[in-house]
Amino acid sequence: MPQVSRSPLLRRTTARLALSAAGCLLSASALAAEDAPNQQQCADSYVNAQTMRRDGDLMGAREQLLVCASQTCLAAVQKDCAQWLTEVESSLPTVVFEVEGADVKDVHVAVDGQPVDEDAHAGRAVSLNPGKHTFKFTFPDGTTSEKTVTLLEGQKNKAVKAGAKLDTSAGGPDIEDTPGGDDEQGAASASALPWAFVGLGVVGFGVATGFWLDASSKLDDLDSSGCAPNCASSDRDAIEQSRLIGDIGFGVGVVSLGVATVLWLGSGNGAASGTLDTQARAKRRQQALRFDVRGLRGGSMATLGGSF
User: Fold this and answer.
1) Which of 40, 47, 65, 112 has the most CB atoms around it within 10 Å of its CB?
2) Is the pLDDT of residue 260 over 90?
3) pLDDT at 179 over 70
């Protein structure tokens, strides 16, 4: 069988290609070696990652953990960093953007002044540190909208919405107005007021009953002592004083129940006609009502006056 001899030109070309391929491999290995962290860098990132994580800078900790989790680091360092990296990734909150009235690809999005258009336009979630962040949206017509949102550790894919029809005032989360909140509180106060006067009336009647019974008991004791008509004036004064206090208590009870009745009648239609009007009427009646108790010889007089 005849042998085919290679020409010198073919042999030289083959040799040059082999040398070029070897050179490329060596260059790639050299570049990889230059990018790989050395042992000092592994140790520094190992320490820095723990400090940043403790301070709440999870984004910075993740960058450091990516360094010390490299295969060129010591096995023990690499193992710890790989585990911590998984924990940090789990703790990092993420947000996604929703835009109404425009395509998100046409809206410029910035977080704390840093653009995140690439992720926002691609619909990807953006990782951020826990805490308060300001989101600014610039629409195609030049209008801007800002929204401040507080992110919690481990919160994933929180939707941050923006649009011309949304309330995007900065400074905190949107707060919905609760219609009639103050009115309901006023109505509750107005409805509780009559019951307060009822309680005062009950106390007044209780005081009256107690002191009347005391005066009656003292009078019986005085009669049984047989001192009449020359009984001590102090004993007679004590009986009169108990009667007077009882009369005052009775007057307070009557007036209090009367005030409660007036308030109930005046606020009967408050729930249907509006609590603000009811509260105003109740306040005016409170100011108009006047209660007075005067002690008289042998008794007392209670008066209730005002305009209704």
Assistant:
1) 65
2) no
3) no
Question: Residue range 239-265: average pLDDT?
Answer: 83
User: In terms of Cα–Cα distance, which of 297, 201, 217, 204 is closest to 246?
Assistant: 204
- Comparing 18 with 236, the larger pLDDT belongs to 236
Computed on alpha carbons and rounded to an integer, the radius of gyration of the chain in Å comes to 45
Please state, as a whole number, how many other Cβ atoms lie within 10 Å of the Cβ of residue 299.
13
Those residues with Cβ within 8 angstroms of residue 161's Cβ, 6 or more apart along the chain or in another chain:
97, 98, 99, 100, 147
Pick the CATH number of 94-163 from 1.25.40.390, 2.60.120.10, 2.60.40.1120, 3.30.450.40: 2.60.40.1120
Instruction: Give the pLDDT score at 272.
Output: 45
User: Any idea where the domains of the chain sit in the sequence?
Assistant: 35-91, 94-163, 183-305
Instruction: Reduce the secondary structure of the chain to three states and give it as a string.
Output: CCCCCCCHHHHHHHHHHHHHHHHHHHHHHHHHHHHCCCHHHHHHHHHHHHHHHHCCCHHHHHHHHHHHCCCCCCHHHHHHHHHHHHHHHHHCCEEEEEEECCCHHHCEEEECCEECHHHHHHCCCEECCCEEEEEEEECCCCCEEEEEEEECCCCCCEEEEEECCCCCCCCCCCCCCCCCHHHHHHHHHHHHHHHHHHHHHHHHHHHHHHHHHHHHHHHHHHHHHCCCCCCCHHHHHHHHHHHHHHHHHHHHHHHHHHHHHHHHHHCCCHHHHCHHHHHHHHHHHHHHCEEEEEEECCEEEEEEECCC
| Phi, psi for 98 (deg, rounded to 5) | -125, 125
Which range among 30-34, 129-133, 224-228, 280-284 shows the weakest confidence by mean pLDDT? Answer: 30-34
